[in-house]
Amino acid sequence: MASEANGAATEAKVEPSLNILAQYIKDLSFENPGAPMSLRPREKAPAISINVNVNANPIAENDFDIVLTLNAKATDGDDVLFNVELVYGGVFRIQGIPQEHVLPLLFIECPRLLFPYARQIISDATRNGGFPPLMVDPIDFAQMFQQRMAEEQAKTAVKS
User: Which helix (H) or strand (E) holds 153?
Assistant: First the structure.
């Protein structure tokens, strides 16, 4: 009888896993307000600013919706050459992971898996808009997560 109980406990233990259930474009916007004049050759490269954000939302007990937002804007002086915004998401299932490791997994590993696809979408959008493809540099999601946690701790310390 004791061996049956131990066997049931062993079966209940779930192997650690991270699965991507779906990936999707939630929002994609490309603006080229000065076309066709914005497409002319230039003497100097435009200034390009890129902003990145990651959000995680639980949608079931072990399922999470991770949303990676990328904004890229190219300017030449006061003129906006292009502005592209992508909200790219993925549904991830996390099982058998200790609770203290779930947040880093959601905010570091999940966006790291989504990033190459989002990068390709941004590249294609800028190329299809008439510009050279914008190849977004790799992003250090671990550093972003540490910075976010430090900001949250600072907010908590100020409230106390």
Answer: helix 141-159
